[in-house]
Design brief:
Largest sheet: 2 strands, antiparallel
Number of strands: 2
Number of helices: 5
Strand content: 5-15%
Length: 185
């Protein structure tokens, strides 16, 4: 038997004994002394909503049953993808014109300085479209997480604000009038 393998087996056995020896002793408990934790059937996991929305945009919103948000997310992504594609096409067009300068599609009418400015403009807009896609993805994940936290949040039906006049007659001062605000929740 290899010496290193023997040392590994001995170390694993020693570690197993340490782990088992360190376990607390379990004693029987009186039935009335125990606390039972029941899993709530309606528990809504913010972690699941976040992970779902991280992997597929809109999936967390579907898990939260907020279906109306999904078209907004995909419309945002569609607009940003269209913007990135269009700006990239214009960028390639002006790059080709710059490389083929005086025999370009503009026949040399557009000066090279303006071609460089256009290249920079469309590159910047294309890059901003990609940054916008990343930001929209992050907002999508954040919205799914926050909405999942508030999924089971219940506002009582007795949430009310009552306004009524108040008349006080103090013995040492003149009578007072005012408004009393009562908030029930």
């Amino acid at each position: 038997m290899d010496r290193h393998f023997f040392k590994f087996i001995l170390f694993a056995f020693f570690l197993l004994i340490l782990i088992c020896a360190n376990q607390p002793t379990v004693f029987g408990q009186i039935k009335g002394d125990t606390i039972t934790l029941s899993e709530d059937e309606n528990y809504h996991s913010p972690r699941k909503a976040t992970l779902y929305s991280t992997f597929i945009p809109g999936w967390g919103q579907a898990y939260n049953k907020k279906y109306w948000i999904i078209p907004i997310i995909y419309a945002g992504f569609g607009g940003l993808i269209y913007s990135a594609n269009w700006n990239n096409g214009e960028l390639q067009r002006f790059k080709k014109a710059f490389n083929d300068f005086p025999n370009d599609e503009f026949n040399g009418i557009v000066p090279q300085d303006q071609l460089i400015d256009n290249i920079d403009y469309y590159r910047r807009n294309r890059d901003l479209s990609f940054i916008g896609m990343f930001a929209l993805w992050g907002i999508n994940v954040l919205q799914a997480n926050v909405d999942a936290h508030f999924y089971n949040y219940d506002i009582s039906r007795d949430l009310s604000l009552k306004i009524e006049p108040v008349f006080r007659n103090k013995y040492t001062f003149a009578p007072e009038t005012g408004l009393k605000l009562t908030l029930n929740f």
